[in-house]
Amino acid sequence: MIPILLVLLLALILFGAGFALKALWWIAVAVLVVWLLGFVMRGTTTAGGRGRWYRW
Question: What is the pTM of this model?
């Protein structure tokens, strides 16, 4: 009985980790899209050049 419970617990942990990793991939893709849109949609400076859209 104990080995079966351990296998089921391991399967549950691995399923949870797989779901979390998949969710993190989707979040990473969304951040990448926002980051790329920042380069496309940044404004111009008074001198006519492209300004930085980030602060650092």
Answer: 0.55
